[in-house]
């Protein structure tokens, strides 16, 4: 064995060890985070009935009431409405980018979408509170302009890059032979996209939509600036309410550590973490399906 081969094997072992170490450290950090948040959050049930926490909307820590239902419903509602708007728009944008846009436009748009992802969420929130909120107030004739509608609109814009980027990659990965065969059999290009490209790329598209939902449900600053931050159940799309992340941000600085109030915020964080992990599990399941079927 030459010195070059011995050196290469040594370097490979070193790099392998570095990767294993990095993965181990990351795993330890994640497990420690889960244990810490779980321990603190579950201590809530020493002072609060689980039924009250999950099924009551009465949130008044000064009076000993810790019902988080309005925050859970607010998070789910904002995520649902944002994906109903941003999901279809993102898929349409991905179809244009992957199948219809000329090469020169695709060369410009792909880096632009990546830059779009890098915009800080506080910028979206600032634009929302200065432009979108007054527009909603004027167009719909509502007082305030804060609420689920405004937060969902902002989030729909924020998740577009994620949905477009992943869906476009999935559509670009469709084997050209499938599309060429469809066109050769007499189908139009639109029929080929609808009946061949989209079904084939569906697992990747669903992955993009689910990751967009994961970002939407965990978004904090932008939502906190436009949703109204009122601990009450939303009566309409235009009434102020709050979500799990925004309520945690609003109250985390005022709660003593270890109190029922503070532990309730940790439990809200645990609920949010569990929802995000479930979404990641769905993505992994979809990815497995894609690897087998495509």
TrEMBL record:
Where do the ABC transmembrane type-1 domain residues begin and end? Answer: 72-283
Which Gene Ontology terms describe the biological processes this protein takes part in?
A: phosphate ion transport
**Which Gene Ontology CC terms are recorded?**
plasma membrane
UniProt entry keywords in alphabetical sequence:
Cell membrane, Membrane, Transmembrane, Transmembrane helix, Transport
Q: Which Pfam families match?
A: BPD_transp_1
Q: Where are the transmembrane segments?
A: 14-37, 68-101, 113-136, 148-171, 192-214, 260-283
Look up and give the membrane topology term: Multi-pass membrane protein
Q: Can you say where in the cell this protein is located?
A: Cell membrane
- Could you tell me which InterPro entries the record lists for this protein? MetI-like (IPR000515), MetI-like_sf (IPR035906), Phosphate_PstC (IPR011864), Phosphate_Transport_Permease (IPR051124)
Mainly localized where?
membrane
Question: Sorted alphabetically, which Gene3D superfamilies does this protein's record hold?
Answer: MetI-like
A GO molecular function annotation here is: phosphate transmembrane transporter activity
User: What protein family does this chain belong to?
Assistant: Belongs to the binding-protein-dependent transport system permease family. CysTW subfamily.
Q: Please identify the protein, giving its name as recorded.
A: Phosphate transport system permease protein PstC
């Amino acid at each position: 064995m030459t010195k070059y081969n011995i050196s290469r094997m040594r370097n490979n072992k070193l790099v392998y060890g570095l990767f294993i170490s990095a993965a181990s450290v990351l795993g330890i950090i994640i497990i420690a985070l889960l244990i810490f948040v779980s321990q603190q959050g579950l201590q809530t049930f020493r002072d609060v009935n689980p039924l009250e926490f999950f099924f009551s909307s009465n949130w008044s820590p000064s009076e000993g009431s810790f019902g988080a239902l309005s925050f859970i419903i607010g998070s789910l509602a904002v995520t649902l409405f944002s994906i109903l708007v941003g999901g279809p728009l993102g898929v349409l944008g991905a179809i244009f980018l992957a199948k219809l846009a000329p090469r020169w436009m695709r060369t410009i748009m792909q880096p632009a979408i990546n830059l779009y992802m890098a915009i800080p969420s506080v910028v979206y929130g600032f634009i929302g509170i200065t432009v979108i909120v007054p527009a909603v107030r004027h167009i719909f004739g509502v007082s305030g302009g804060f609420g689920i509608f405004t937060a969902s609109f902002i989030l729909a814009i924020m998740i577009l890059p994620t949905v477009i980027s992943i869906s476009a990659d999935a559509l670009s990965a469709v084997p050209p032979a499938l599309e060429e065969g469809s066109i050769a059999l007499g189908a139009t290009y639109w029929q080929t996209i609808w009946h061949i490209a989209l079904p084939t790329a569906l697992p990747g598209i669903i992955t993009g939509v689910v990751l967009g939902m994961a970002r939407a449900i965990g978004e904090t600053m932008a939502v906190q600036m436009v949703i109204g931050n009122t601990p009450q159940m939303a009566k309409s799309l235009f009434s102020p309410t709050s979500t799990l992340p925004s309520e945690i941000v609003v109250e985390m600085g005022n709660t003593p550590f270890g109190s029922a109030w503070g532990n309730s915020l940790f439990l809200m964080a645990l609920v949010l973490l569990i929802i995000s992990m479930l979404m990641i599990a769905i993505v992994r399941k979809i990815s497995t399906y894609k690897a087998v079927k495509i």
